[in-house]
């Protein structure tokens, strides 16, 4: 391995160390904001470290065909140390700002959708319900008026109809009563 490739490898591993530091901070910020159970955090911790090691190894394969030597670890530790010394606090502060901006943007988009889409739909829905209720009450009033007119017009015939009904009912009652009396009297004779 030439010196140029070795320097390139150390620089790449230093960058990987810094990026792993950024990933570590990002993971911890999101882990602190989430309320996950401990067993899920344990699984995510393992996935984070396995994923980080896999990414570093892929970069190492690209740079020097995956040859592992001592300067590689030195480069990673140096990159992570420089990151935690100089950029960790600023990056975490920037990350919190980005999260707050994303939350604000999400709430704003929801409010815009609520104002431009949901509220007009609810308004038209309520207007349609009010119009239907009004039309229903008007229809009931018209039908009530028509019923009163029909009753007024047919009221002279109502007495005649009631009288006819009583006559018919009375006859049928008489037939029924006569038949019952005849049946009971026949039983008594037997």
From TrEMBL:
Keywords: Membrane, Transmembrane, Transmembrane helix. InterPro entries: YabQ (IPR019074). The keyword rRNA-binding does not apply. The chain crosses the membrane at residues 6-24, 36-61, 67-86, 123-147. This is Spore cortex biosynthesis protein YabQ. It comes from Brevibacillus choshinensis. The lineage of its organism: Bacteria, Bacillati, Bacillota, Bacilli, Bacillales.
